[in-house]
């Protein structure tokens, strides 16, 4: 079920000022049925006209709250950062398919790059809840632009990579994954910038891997057919409806 | 009898509020929000003779308060529509208006014939898609070709035929007269305005197809002016659309000469806009003591 509903902003704090924010929203109906990997379409103001698709970072079904972790990129996310505690916020969701998971024999590996870490936290919570061991790999460009690491530490062992080497391993997530023992993993999940996903796609034969994709969206409901991504068979699928989560083998990053 | 009951030639709608092709899928995508039978009609996503995968992304971008799209008529083809989409759509309890696009005049005839079946309320003929290379827009800018397409569709169906006009012409009244003389029952207007947006960092067009159709609130004054002009030029009813977001917008279109309206891009912003407009029109009719909303159609011309 998809709802359009006014949520109530409970908190809206910068993790890094003018860059990364965490907002907690009370919206019981959406919280009730949200699955990890799904997203919300949020009306952030009069303009932009279109809603902004934002990943669900965490859900508390007991208190009926949803958290979003978002990066300031344009007017829409800038508007979001201005929301005050107690203000109502126009939400549509939960949208998209979400990650698939169960109780696995071996551990799960979560791979996040930049703001792509957002949907992986809720996934991690549910994986742990289902009795899984979780290992986390987070890639940032530098220590100054790294965030939310302490959340992931609650889920399992965390490795950080930074492009400039100012925190953790120097390089992108590939620097860590190059010699990784994938036979110790039942399933891997990733979300991040396209170059990262493209690289991870090359690991599709080594591990069962799900990728959460990003795309410019019109409606978020599957009607406008804007946010399509190329599939291995040459056809397009809607990121908002059949996605945002796809098996790595399904998608193609070729032009 | 409901005061919003709407008659467009031989097409009857329970109210004059419809949703524009390409903005509402086949209706299925909006079922969670409200009972689709509340709508006057649904113009379903455009169909073509064969399956089309559509244009390469990026296909859509918001710019200057509106939206540019270049989807490229992605759809499963008309047979897929008839076999897999229509059976469900016809259970929604609203008029299903099937939007068709052909690559040549003959293809429009073939599609019209295939759709002359139960469950199809009317055929809306897209002669103005800006986003496909073959055919498309040329039918919508050349009065003789628009006339030919209208004739062949009319000859192949018993359904009401709606011709959807392009605003990308010098004189839209000439196009309206051409489709009227071709036998069109209804005109829907306007399709999108051809537009463009550029990424100044990359120094490249944002839309992969370079240009696309511009829609949303910024085009409303243009659409309204064109409905006003076409109302004066033809005798057939008009379904007005272009940036309609609320009841006031809808009333403006009715007063300019539209007998019904469509919500398009507005569906992306708030799926409830069509429903809010239906309620708003009911209230307007009551407040002004009208017998029927029809009393305001073309009001500014009197």
Give unreliable regions of chain B as ranges.
none
Q: Total number of helical segments of chain A?
A: 6
Specify the structural class of chain A: alpha/beta
The main β sheet of chain B shows up as: 8 strands, parallel, barrel
Tally of DSSP β-strands of chain A? 16
β-sheet strand percentage of chain A: 35-45%
Mean pLDDT of chain A: 97
Structural class of chain B: alpha/beta
Q: Give the CA-based shape of chain A.
A: globular
What percentage of amino acids of chain B are in beta strands?
15-25%
Rg value of chain A: 17 Å
Largest interface: pair, residues per side:
A-B, 31 and 33 residues
Mean pLDDT of chain B: 95
Instruction: Tell me which oligomeric state these chains represent.
Output: heterodimer
What is the number of helical segments of chain B per DSSP (H or I, 4+ residues)?
A: 9
Task: Report the helical percentage of chain A.
Answer: 10-25%
Report how far the terminal alpha carbons of chain B are from each other: 26 Å
Q: Approximately how much helix is present in the residues of chain B?
A: 25-40%
Distance between the termini of chain A: 34 Å
Helix-strand topology string of chain A = EEHEEEEHEEHEHEEHEHEEEE
Compact summary:
Chain A is 17% helix and 36% strand. Chain A is of the alpha/beta class and 255 residues long.
Walk me through what this model shows.
The complex is a heterodimer of chains A (255) and B (302). Chain A is 17% helix and 36% strand. Chain A is built from 6 helices and 16 strands. A 7-stranded antiparallel sheet of chain A has the order 4-3-7-1-2-6-5. In chain B, the strands form 4 sheets. In chain B, strands 3-4-7-8-9-10-15-16 form an 8-stranded parallel barrel, surrounded by 7 helices. Chain B has a 4-stranded antiparallel sheet with strand order 5-6-14-11, with no helix packed on it. In chain B, strand 9, helix 5 and strand 10 form a beta-alpha-beta unit. Chain B contains 9 helices and 16 strands. With 302 residues, chain B is an alpha/beta fold. Chain B is globular and about 55 Å long. The mean pLDDT of chain B is 95. Chains A and B meet through loops of A and strand 5, strand 6 and helix 8 of B.
């Amino acid at each position: 079920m998809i709802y359009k509903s006014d949520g109530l902003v409970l908190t809206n704090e910068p993790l890094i000022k003018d860059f990364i924010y965490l907002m907690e929203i009370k919206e019981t109906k959406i919280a009730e049925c949200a699955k990890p990997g799904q997203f919300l379409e949020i009306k952030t103001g009069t303009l932009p006209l279109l809603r902004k698709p934002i990943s669900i970072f965490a859900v508390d079904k007991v208190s009926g709250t949803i958290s979003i972790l978002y990066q300031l990129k344009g007017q829409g996310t800038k508007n979001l950062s201005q929301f005050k505690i107690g203000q109502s916020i126009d939400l549509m969701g939960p949208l998209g398919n979400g990650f698939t998971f169960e109780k696995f024999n071996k551990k799960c590996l979560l791979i996040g790059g930049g703001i792509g870490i957002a949907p992986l936290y809720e996934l991690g919570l549910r994986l742990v809840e289902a009795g899984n061991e979780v290992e986390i790999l987070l890639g940032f460009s530098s220590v100054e632009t790294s965030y939310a690491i302490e959340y992931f530490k609650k889920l399992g062992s965390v490795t950080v990579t930074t492009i400039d080497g100012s925190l953790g391993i120097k390089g992108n997530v590939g620097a860590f994954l190059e010699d990784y023992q994938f036979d110790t993993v039942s399933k891997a999940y990733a979300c991040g910038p396209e170059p990262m996903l493209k690289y991870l796609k090359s690991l599709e034969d080594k591990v069962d891997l799900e990728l959460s994709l990003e795309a410019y969206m019109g409606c978020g409901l599957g009607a406008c057919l804007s946010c399509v991504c190329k599939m291995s068979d040459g056809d397009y699928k809607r990121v908002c409806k059949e996605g945002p989560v796809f098996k790595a083998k399904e998608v193609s990053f070729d032009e | 009898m409901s005061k919003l009951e709407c008659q467009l030639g031989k097409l009857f709608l329970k109210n004059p509020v419809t949703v524009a092709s390409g903005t509402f899928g086949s209706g299925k995508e909006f079922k969670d929000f409200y009972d689709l039978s509340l709508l006057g009609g649904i113009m379903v996503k455009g169909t073509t003779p064969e399956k089309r995968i559509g244009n390469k992304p990026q296909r859509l971008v918001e710019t200057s308060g509106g939206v540019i799209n270049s989807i490229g008529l992605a759809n499963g083809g008309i047979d897929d529509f008839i076999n897999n989409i229509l059976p469900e759509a016809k259970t929604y309890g609203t008029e299903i208006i099937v939007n068709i696009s052909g690559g040549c005049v003959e293809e429009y005839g073939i599609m019209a014939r295939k759709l002359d079946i139960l469950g199809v309320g009317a055929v809306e003929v897209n002669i103005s898609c800006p986003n496909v290379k073959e055919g498309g827009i040329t039918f919508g800018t050349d009065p003789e070709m628009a006339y030919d397409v209208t004739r062949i569709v009319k000859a192949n169906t018993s359904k009401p035929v709606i011709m959807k006009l392009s605003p990308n012409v010098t004189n839209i009244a000439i196009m309206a007269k051409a489709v009227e003389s071709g036998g069109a029952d209804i005109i829907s207007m306007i399709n999108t305005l051809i537009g463009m947006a550029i990424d100044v960092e990359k120094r490249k067009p944002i839309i992969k197809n370079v240009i696309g159709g511009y829609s949303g609130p910024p085009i409303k004054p243009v659409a309204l002016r064109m409905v006003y002009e076409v109302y004066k030029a033809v005798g057939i009813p008009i379904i007005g659309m272009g940036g309609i977001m609320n009841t006031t917008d809808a009333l403006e279109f009715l007063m300019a000469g539209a007998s019904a309206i469509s919500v398009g891009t507005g569906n992306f912003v708030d799926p409830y806009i069509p429903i809010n407009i239906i309620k708003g029109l009911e209230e307007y009719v009551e407040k002004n003591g009208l017998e029927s909303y029809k009393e305001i159609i073309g009001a500014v011309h009197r």
